[in-house]
Amino acid sequence: MQSHPSKDILGTKSETLKGKRIVLCITGSVAAVQCPEIARALMRHGAEVFAVMSPAAQKLIHPHLMEWATGNAVVTELTGKIEHVALVGVRETQADLVLVAPATANTISKIACGIDDTTVTSVVSTAFGSNTPIIIVPAMHESMYNHPILNEHIKRLKALGIEFVGPRIDEGKAKIAETREIVEAVIRKLATKKDLAGLKVLVTAGPTVEHIDPVRVISNKSSGKMGIAIAEEALSRGAEVTLVYGLGTVSPPLGAKLIRVETTEQMYEAVVSELKAQKYDLVVAAAAAADWTPIKAFSRKVSTHGVRSLDLKLKPTVKIVDAVKKLSPKTFLVAFRAEYSLPEKELIESAYERLKRADADLIVVNDVGKEGAGFGADTNEVFIVDRDKKAIHVPLAPKREVAKKILDVAIEKMGPK
C-alpha cells in the first residue's frame, strides 16, 4: 500500500524525530487552527503524527483537515477499536509522546482531576498509565489562565512530570506558543542523545552591522539560520547554551541565555565578557560578523541631495574568534569560514590556515557561491577541518542535520567529559 501523499514531507527538515510516533490531542480552543502547521512541522523533522480531536475541537476545524495534515486517520470518538489504548497503551506500537495542543482550561483541569470524558482526556489518562511522556500547550483568555484553581492544577501536573510549553501573554489572552517553540520542546523531550549534558556551550550567530550613519549600515546576507540550528541542537543534547546573536532573521530558541548585539565590537565584547565570567566547554563561532567598519561614522544622516558620490574609508573589525583561546585556552573552539566559488582543495586550505591563526580545534567552511549552501538558505554543504588538516565532507543537507554532524565531530574530538 502506498504512503499517503501528505507524508512526502517526512524528514525534509531533519531526521531528528525519525521513527517517533506523536499523538497530537486537539481541544476546543480557537488555537486549534494552528494544529495543521504544528503537525506538519513535526513531520518535517521525521515524526509520524496521529491526531485525536475532542468534540469541541471538531466544531472549530474539520477532522478531514487533520487527516490531510498528518496522512493518518483522525480519532474523533472511542469505538470498539479502543483507539486510546491502540495509540498509547503498553504495546509495540505505543506512541513516544502525547502532545495536547491547544489545551483549554477545561481540559487541563479534567486531566489534573483524572476525569476521562472525551477522546483527548481518555488518551491522556492512558498515557499516564503507560508512562508515555506528555506535553501540554495551554491556550485560553488570560483571565481564565489566571484562575487560582487552574494554577493549582498546572502545578499538580508539573509535579507529576508533565511539561508545559507557553502560553504567550498578549492582547489579554494566553495564546498558544509559537509552532517553532512547540517543536523544539518535543525534540528536546524525545532526544536520545544527551552527550552535552552538564556542559556549557557558547554560540555566536547571525550577521552584525557597522554604521555608516544613524540609518545606514554595512553588513552581509547572513540569516543566522546555521548558528541557530547549532544552538537548538546543543540544547536538545542537554547543554547549557549561551547565544550571542546579531541581527538574524530567525527567532532564537527558548532555553538559551540570549545576548543580542548589533555591531562586531558589541559581539566581541559580549564573548569576551562571557569567557571572563565563566568557564565554557565549547565555543561555536558561527556568526557572520562584519569584516569592515567605517573609520569614522557620520553622526547625522548623510543626504543624497545634490551629491554624486560618497567616499568611505574602512578599517578591519576586531576578530572575535582570535580572542577565544587567548582568554580560555582549554575551551574547545569551532570556528567558521565562508568562501566564494573556490575549488575544494583551496577551500580546505583556506580554512586550515584560518584554523591555525585562531588556534581553533575545528573549522567549518562552506562555499556560499554554491546553490543551497549560501546565506539565507535552509540547507548547507560544509567541510569540517581539524588540526591535522583532515576534512570531513557534509553533503548538502538541512541545516539542523549539518549542525548535528558538526556537534558529533566536536564531541568526538573533545573526548570524555
Walk me through what this model shows.
β10 and β11 form a beta hairpin. α5 crosses α8 and α10 crosses α14. This protein has two domains: 179 residues, Rossmann fold (3-Layer(aba) Sandwich), CATH 3.40.50.1950; 215 residues, CoaB-like (Rossmann fold, 3-Layer(aba) Sandwich). With 417 residues, the chain is of the alpha/beta class. The chain is elongated. It is 34% helix and 23% strand. The strands form five sheets. It has an eight-stranded mixed sheet with strand order 13-12-9-14-17-18-19-20, sandwiched between helices. It has a five-stranded parallel sheet with strand order 2-1-3-4-6, sandwiched between helices. Strands 5-8-7 form a three-stranded antiparallel sheet.
Tags for this model:
14 helices, 417 residues, Rossmann fold, five-stranded parallel β-sheet, eight-stranded mixed β-sheet, 2 domains, alpha/beta, 23% strand
| Top-tier CATH class of the largest domain | Alpha Beta
What's the CATH topology name of the largest domain? Rossmann fold
The percent range for helix content is: 25-40%
Query: Using only CA atoms, what is the Rg?
Result: 24 Å
